[in-house]
């Protein structure tokens, strides 16, 4: 049996469906033999070729002289029973007419049996429906897949007056079927066409992988300017049913189920993976994703056999927080695999691994816990940051120990930390032969004091002032890094290096000038190389510029775009913006302006006036620039300026002016990337370029 794909990019009607089957190879003599069994009186059946928008297809035109009776569903049923048509085709035709009667009855609040068929009960509609059902059977099509339906737009005149497109009956028949409108004025999907597709198609979507044997074209009655009113039918075998397909050895077809998930804890995800794998999934993967409102989430992907896709999709919706899923087919290449048992090397040792996740544990508490665990016999203790439920930060603890120590260390973990539960398992450990060797400290090492403290609510200006005072008081070095403090508040970790005799004085300064609640002081050995200061002259080509920086929050991107235009107009050489995390973990912007030194005051004032910043930082810097010039090139779309940068006379970069390319893209109605590519190609041609300003 064959499979078929119906392309309804120009909609579908009863006569188009019948025509496309005839063009795809339905034996016409056998088709007419079956249709003659219907007692419909005299009618004229014309089969021609028609051109629609440059495409040629079969055209079916059925004409009946005089007026036709308005038939009821019982009349149609008697007609089909008397005709002795092929059983499967007759049953499908009756099902379609019954569906049409039920839809019309629902729309007009009349029982289906009392509905008088108007257009659908005419001879041409009866022949279209019965002929299509018989044609499907004669072509031996076992499965029909259909594209989304282009329904058209505007209004259509019917027996009940002017109706919007899609007509009410058509719209009712197309429930749960993907539709769209390309803007063509006219009715592209008729009630007959909608009923046929709804009854005969087993699925809707893009053209599947097929080995195509025949293609049929069915022309519609009307012609639309610039739009080929033609339906297409591809008949053949789906790729997964093809054996011995060249170039695809070992391929298998699998279903891929994808979903994005948020507000799902890692514990629930782990349980979900177990259930999905138990239900027959071949693989389950996840990756971090950013969802709407910048919320963190998971991108979930499940690989399975096609027959399992519906069951696993239902499991995803039931067991996760996914609101929707995506399913598609893919080809999978697999290597020949086998399992082999490997014996454990004689030198390996068995150890217990104890794991837990904890929150609200400060570095000091962790350090104390680590000392206790190691003293109790742990072989190793490691810690890494993790995200817990409600996106709270936490620690992932892992303890390595001998199996007989597992129970004792697990108890210690419960007593000294805040885990809700622990995980314990056995593992093999490979160890190298080791020995301890005492090393004498080099004579050149010096002993220094290290003073450490964590601080919050301290702005960059206060830290800069403290740094100057600490260095003036004799500190050898002062460093600062970001830190997370209790209640997830951002803070600073400050470290001061000084001679031991200066530690008390600098500790006192730290208490006076910062908001620290406590400090830690210890001695350390410091290695240092012989150093000397050498004056380095600034290269002749460098230029001095001012850099103005500010942190801003509560400012929309639209205001930033306006400010950047004003800053550049006021003489800024460059303006950049990057995201920043401000106090109370609020998102903000870091704006940096590059300008000539004499422009710094004016641009600083502009920054205060046009943004929400309450302070700026200004410093001088050396800037290296390449020799630059602009050349004019001619493209098929118009003239474009190209920026050219040279170093030692050689071109190192060339880029078309974006504004020129954007303007031409709009004027010529072409893609912007096409204009840029044309400008780049024009510059690379060995023709003469004209230097511009």
Fold and architecture overview:
By secondary structure, the protein is of the alpha+beta class. The chain has a five-stranded mixed sheet with strand order 11-4-1-13-12. Strand 27 (about 575-580) and strand 28 form a beta hairpin. Helix 3 (about 75-85) packs antiparallel against helix 4 (about 85-110) and helix 12 runs antiparallel to helix 13. It is elongated, with a radius of gyration of 39 Å.
| Unreliable stretches | 241-249
Structural class call reads alpha+beta
Number of strands: 33
Radius of gyration: 39 Å
Distance between the termini: 71 Å
Residue share in helix: 25-40%
Helix and strand topology:
Elements: E1 2-7, H1 14-23, H2 28-35, E2 44-52, E3 55-63, H3 73-83, H4 87-108, H5 123-138, E4 141-146, E5 149-150, E6 152-153, E7 155-158, E8 161-164, H6 168-173, E9 179-180, E10 186-187, H7 191-200, E11 201-204, E12 210-219, E13 230-238, E14 251-261, H8 266-278, E15 283-290, E16 296-304, H9 309-319, E17 326-333, E18 349-358, H10 363-375, E19 380-387, E20 393-401, H11 406-416, E21 423-429, E22 446-455, H12 460-472, E23 477-484, E24 490-498, H13 503-513, E25 520-526, E26 543-552, H14 557-569, E27 574-581, E28 587-595, H15 600-610, E29 617-623, E30 627-635, E31 638-647, E32 650-656, H16 658-668, H17 672-684, E33 690-692
Parallel strand pairs: 1-4, 4-11, 5-9
Antiparallel strand pairs: 1-13, 2-3, 6-10, 7-8, 12-13, 14-16, 14-17, 15-16, 18-20, 18-21, 19-20, 22-24, 22-25, 23-24, 26-28, 26-29, 27-28, 30-31, 30-33, 31-32
Helix pairs in contact: 1-5, 2-5, 3-4, 4-5, 4-7, 12-13, 14-15, 16-17
């Amino acid at each position: 049996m064959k499979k078929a794909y119906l392309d309804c990019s120009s909609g579908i009607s009863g006569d188009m469906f019948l025509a496309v089957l005839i063009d795809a190879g339905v034996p016409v003599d056998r088709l007419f033999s079956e249709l003659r069994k219907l007692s419909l009186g005299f009618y004229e059946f014309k089969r021609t070729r028609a051109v629609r928008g440059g495409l040629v297809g079969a055209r079916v035109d059925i004409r009946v002289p005089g007026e036709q009776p308005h038939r009821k569903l019982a009349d149609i049923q008697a007609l089909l029973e008397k005709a002795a048509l092929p059983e499967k085709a007759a049953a499908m035709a009756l099902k379609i007419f019954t569906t049409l009667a039920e839809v019309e009855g629902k729309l007009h609040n009349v029982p289906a049996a009392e509905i008088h068929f108007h257009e659908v009960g005419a001879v041409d509609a009866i022949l279209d429906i019965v002929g299509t059902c018989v044609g499907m059977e004669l072509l031996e099509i076992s499965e029909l897949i259909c594209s989304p339906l282009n329904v058209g737009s505007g209004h259509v005149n019917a027996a009940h007056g002017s109706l919007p497109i899609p007509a009410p009956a058509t719209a009712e028949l197309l429930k749960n079927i993907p539709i769209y409108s390309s803007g063509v004025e006219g009715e592209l999907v008729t009630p007959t066409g909608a009923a046929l597709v709804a009854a005969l198609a087993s699925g809707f979507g893009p053209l599947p992988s097929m080995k195509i044997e025949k293609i049929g074209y069915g022309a519609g009655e009307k012609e639309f300017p610039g739009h080929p009113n033609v339906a297409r039918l591809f008949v053949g075998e789906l790729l997964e049913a093809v054996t011995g397909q060249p170039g695809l050895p070992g391929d298998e077809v699998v279903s891929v189920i994808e979903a994005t998930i948020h507000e799902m804890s890692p514990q629930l995800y782990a349980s979900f993976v177990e259930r999905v794998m138990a239900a027959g999934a071949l693989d389950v993967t996840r990756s971090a994703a950013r969802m709407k409102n910048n919320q963190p989430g998971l991108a979930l992907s499940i690989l399975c056999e096609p027959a399992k896709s519906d069951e696993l999709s239902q499991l995803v919706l039931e067991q996760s927080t996914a609101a929707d899923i995506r399913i598609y087919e893919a080809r999978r290449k697999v290597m020949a695999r086998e399992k082999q048992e490997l014996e454990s090397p004689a030198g390996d040792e068995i150890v217990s691994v104890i794991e837990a996740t904890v929150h609200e544990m400060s570095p000091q508490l962790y350090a104390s816990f680590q000392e206790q665990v190691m003293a109790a016999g742990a072989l190793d203790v490691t810690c890494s940051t993790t995200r817990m439920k409600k996106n709270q930060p936490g620690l992932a603890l892992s303890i390595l120990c001998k199996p007989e120590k597992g129970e004792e260390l697990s108890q210690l973990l419960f007593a000294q930390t805040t885990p809700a539960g622990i995980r314990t398992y056995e593992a093999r450990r490979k160890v190298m032969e080791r020995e301890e060797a005492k090393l004498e400290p080099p004579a050149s090492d010096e002993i220094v004091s290290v003073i450490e403290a964590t601080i919050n609510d301290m702005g960059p200006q206060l830290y800069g002032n403290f740094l100057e005072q600490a260095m003036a008081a004799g500190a050898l070095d002062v460093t600062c890094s970001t830190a997370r403090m209790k209640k997830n508040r951002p803070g600073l970790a400050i470290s001061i290096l000084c001679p031991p005799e200066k530690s008390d004085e600098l500790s006192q300064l730290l208490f006076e000038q910062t908001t620290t609640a406590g400090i830690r002081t210890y001695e350390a050995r410091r290695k240092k190389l012989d150093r000397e200061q050498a004056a380095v002259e600034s290269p002749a080509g460098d230029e001095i510029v001012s850099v103005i920086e500010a942190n801003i929050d509560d400012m929309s991107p639209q205001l930033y775009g306006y400010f950047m235009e004003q800053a550049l107009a006021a003489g800024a050489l460059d303006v950049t913006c990057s995201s920043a995390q401000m106090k109370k973990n609020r998102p903000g912007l870091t704006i940096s302006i590059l300008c000539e030194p004499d422009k710094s005051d004016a641009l600083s004032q502009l920054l205060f006036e046009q943004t929400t910043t309450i302070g700026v930082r200004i410093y001088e810097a050396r800037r290296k620039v390449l020799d630059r010039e602009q050349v004019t090139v001619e493209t098929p779309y118009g003239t474009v300026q190209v920026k050219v940068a040279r170093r030692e006379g050689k071109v190192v970069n060339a880029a078309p002016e974006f504004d020129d390319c954007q303007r031409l893209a709009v004027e010529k109605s072409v893609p912007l990337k096409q204009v840029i590519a044309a400008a780049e190609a024009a510059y690379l041609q060995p023709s003469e370029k004209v230097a511009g300003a």
